[in-house]
């Protein structure tokens, strides 16, 4: 028997712990795996040898494992650490693989998004170069749904459900006043507008909003935007708009980049203020009441409005990752293949990490209307199956019961 190691990385999602739960549950059942280790704070936890024994925590506590499945965010903590290429800094790789070999780690699972898959690729290529016998698999997650090579990513469905629900509730709030107003809701999405597009699912037989939707996939024009708002105001007093944080002008400048912005360790601009920027423009030009709302991190870890479909898929993708690794699969990311929307049918498979890492999946232009201010029915039909169903969550003293994360709060192992 040998051991396995699991780590989580990047931004949190509502269901990333469901993938962890699925992987742990399957590894506990395996006769080929003795100890399941968890790295605290992603690949940095591996570099710092900050590990916990997941077998001892969950082996005889199935209820605790079930609670993990319906706990948002990341039980193992996270990091946004860019692993250098081994030709630039081989010392990091020596430290990582020395630890893996010392602990007899035969299977390594990294749960994360785009940048995390870059880490998976680098570790796999180094293991191949040095002929190290370890199976490395990426388990996808991201609310942005921009991972290449998979129909969609675990985490997106629940975030989309949160966005759709929140937009409907914002509409109920806005329509009570007989005053000309514009409400702008900013939703996460640097270069891909999948999550902002989910706002369209709030529309129903009485609610036509959001009236306008702007995505990063289409060039944004301030003058056209103002014309669009004027047009809607001719027919209704309360205009509700959904905008991606990453919308850009023709010269590729972010609308939110009205002030100098820092970048993260992967070189991505730290965006903020898109809704406020547009709100100020409307106030100056149209002279009407404006409210700017930034959903920000609220859409990332909202288990109280999670999608049961999303939770179940995330759990299954963790299960299958372990099964594939035990079968000798390595250098792959778990993927979802969709067969049809209604009834929704899919299959969990895997794809070559070399074809996925450092690539980004955007919304096809044909799924956005010609004017670039709304989405088509095809995109609605794509998203809707992913938000279906609600989990059963326990409550205590009026708030949800989630898994204990004192090991993160107190810096366990540091």
The main β sheet shows up as: 7 strands, mixed
Tally of individual domains? 2
Structural class: alpha/beta
Number of strands: 13
Determine and state the CATH class of the largest domain.
Answer: Alpha Beta
Overall average pLDDT: 93
Level-2 CATH architecture of the largest domain: 3-Layer(aba) Sandwich
Strand order of the largest sheet: 3-2-1-4-5-10-11
CATH topology of the largest domain: Rossmann fold
Report the end-to-end length measured between terminal Cα atoms. Answer: 29 Å
What does this structure look like?
By secondary structure, the chain is α/β, with parallel strands linked by helices. The chain has 2 domains: 2-155 and 303-359 and 389-409, Rossmann fold, CATH 3.40.50; 156-299, 3-Layer(aba) Sandwich (Rossmann fold). 34% of the residues lie in helices and 19% in strands. The protein is built from 13 helices and 13 strands. The strands form 3 sheets. Strands 3-2-1-4-5-10-11 form a 7-stranded mixed sheet, with helices on both faces. It has a 4-stranded parallel sheet with strand order 7-8-6-9, sandwiched between helices. Helix 1 links the parallel strand 1 and strand 2 (33-39). Helix 1 runs antiparallel to helix 4 (62-69). The two termini are 29 Å apart. The mean pLDDT is 93.
